[in-house]
Amino acid sequence: MKESSNIKITLALSKGRIFEETMPLLEEAGIQVAEKPEKSRKLIIQTSDPNIRLLILRASDVPTYVQYGSADLGIAGKDILIEHSAKHPGSLYQPIDLNIAKCKLSVAVKKDFNYLDAVKQGARLRVATKYIKMTRDHFAAKGVYVDIIKLYGSMELAPLIGLADAIVDIVSTGDTLSANGLVAVEDIMQISSRLIVNKASLKNRGDKLKPLMEAFRRASN
Ligand code: PRP
């Protein structure tokens, strides 16, 4: 018998901001989570409801677990979902904007780099990011030629070391940019996190999922 066979609903999410801001939504739905993933280091966390458990994943892996049905539900930022959908169109239901983990996707450069002049002069910019699709779409819409350099984290380092002229990254408080002598020069889009749902789970076990989905909808309004 599989270990998961008695669990009715698996919810995938990432630790950090998304976990912290999901907890109040779960509490409003009457579900308590005793352990914090930062402290316990556990990757599967039980809740006060024996039928609901959480998987703690890297943010970019959440859509994959939900797409393949290893999790019924997930919570992921619009940034992650747009990049995932570019490779796997229509692979997930994305029914509810939870209005949590709000931030912006922005272009940022070193303080002394004249971005507007570079764009005006038609310079070919090197842009470091992990958001390939959104970066390509943004600069294509502006008619700016860019060489995109794919990175997986610590994007702020790239302009400092001369790997790139600009970065496209998430900005929340702005502290990481300013700590590294960078400034945001263009906002690409507002980001928040959405509830995502495995299509087969919804079809086959919608009666189990819908009460929790409705609770998320109520709590996020
Ligand atoms: C994001 C982003 C920035 C930072 C911005 O990283 O990549 O580094 O947050 O936040 P701030 O404006 O509040 O300083 P995150 O901590 O989510 O980790 P990641 O590098 O794994 O994306």
Automatic annotation (TrEMBL):
SUPFAM superfamilies: Periplasmic binding protein-like II (SSF53850). GO terms for cellular component: cytoplasm. PANTHER family: ATP PHOSPHORIBOSYLTRANSFERASE (PTHR21403:SF8), ATP PHOSPHORIBOSYLTRANSFERASE ATP-PRTASE (PTHR21403). Pathway: Amino-acid biosynthesis; L-histidine biosynthesis; L-histidine from 5-phospho-alpha-D-ribose 1-diphosphate: step 1/9. Keywords: Amino-acid biosynthesis, ATP-binding, Cytoplasm, Glycosyltransferase, Histidine biosynthesis, Nucleotide-binding, Transferase. The keyword tRNA processing does not apply. Belongs to the ATP phosphoribosyltransferase family. Short subfamily. Heteromultimer composed of HisG and HisZ subunits. It is found in: Cytoplasm. Its EC number is 2.4.2.17. Its main location: cytoplasm. It holds the Pfam family HisG. Catalyzes the condensation of ATP and 5-phosphoribose 1-diphosphate to form N'-(5'-phosphoribosyl)-ATP (PR-ATP). Has a crucial role in the pathway because the rate of histidine biosynthesis seems to be controlled primarily by regulation of HisG enzymatic activity. Residues 58-217 form the ATP phosphoribosyltransferase catalytic domain. It comes from Candidatus Kinetoplastidibacterium desouzai TCC079E. It catalyses: 1-(5-phospho-beta-D-ribosyl)-ATP + diphosphate = 5-phospho-alpha-D-ribose 1-diphosphate + ATP. HAMAP family: HisG_Short. Lacks the C-terminal regulatory region which is replaced by HisZ. InterPro entries: ATP_PRibTrfase_cat, ATP_PRibTrfase_CS, ATP_PRibTrfase_HisG, ATP_PRibTrfase_HisG_short. The gene is hisG. It is an enzyme of class 2 (transferase). This is ATP phosphoribosyltransferase. GO terms for biological process: L-histidine biosynthetic process. One of its GO terms (molecular function) is ATP phosphoribosyltransferase activity. The keyword Mitochondrion does not apply.
